[in-house]
């Protein structure tokens, strides 16, 4: 199962559209995960129509229309892997332990908010991924997104893509 992970798209404020290479990855993916801060509902509509499967949550910059259609925390099991998607996880210090307590039984936590790519594993085995942003690099050298594969309940081939 091929995944594309994105977050903090902030459309159309930070960019007018997703980069073409991200759309190509979405077209090739089995599941697209968006960790919030869509800003405009049009991207949600477009992804729902184009992605084979979409899992997403709302972020702090998402208004009432997006919050009515998306959960604060999305939870799903993908090919035997328990996944949660949330926008904010708080400060970096202590994140692994804090999230492990907040999301018991979850194998993969995808989050956003910081626009800073992240890939770590908690002491108990919770994998934490933040794909950064494909449209707003802020203080990062590149805009980014992530891809990964789930195979029989195991996450593998996690890759960060610089734009």
From TrEMBL:
Name of the featured protein: Phosphoesterase
InterPro entries: Calcineurin-like_PHP_lpxH, Metallo-depent_PP-like, Phosphodiesterase_MJ0936/Vps29
Keyword Metal-binding annotated: yes
EC number: 3.1.4.-
Example of a GO MF term: metal ion binding
Keyword Metal-binding on entry: yes
First-level EC class: hydrolase
Species in which this protein is naturally found: Kribbella amoyensis
Keyword list, A-Z: Metal-binding
Gene3D superfamilies xrefs: 3.60.21.10
Cofactor: a divalent metal cation
Pfam families cross-referenced by the UniProt entry: Metallophos_2
Residues covered by the Calcineurin-like phosphoesterase domain: 1-149
Organism lineage string: Bacteria, Bacillati, Actinomycetota, Actinomycetes, Propionibacteriales
Protein family per UniProt: Belongs to the metallophosphoesterase superfamily. YfcE family.
């Amino acid at each position: 199962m091929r995944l594309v992970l994105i977050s903090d798209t902030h459309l159309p404020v930070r960019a007018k559209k997703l980069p073409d290479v991200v759309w190509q990855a979405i077209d090739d993916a089995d599941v697209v995960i968006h960790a919030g801060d869509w800003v405009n509902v049009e991207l949600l509509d477009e992804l729902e129509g184009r992605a084979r499967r979409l899992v997403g949550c709302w972020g702090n910059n998402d208004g009432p229309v997006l919050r009515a259609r998306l959960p604060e925390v999305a939870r799903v099991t993908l090919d035997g892997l328990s996944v949660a998607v949330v926008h904010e996880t708080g400060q970096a210090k202590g994140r692994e332990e804090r999230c492990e307590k907040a999301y018991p039984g979850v194998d993969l936590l995808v989050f956003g908010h910081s626009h800073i790519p992240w890939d770590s594993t908690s002491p108990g085995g919770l994998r934490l991924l933040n794909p950064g942003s494909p449209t707003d690099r802020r203080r990062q050298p590149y805009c980014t997104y992530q891809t990964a594969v789930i195979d029989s309940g195991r996450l593998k081939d996690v890759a960060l893509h610089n734009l």
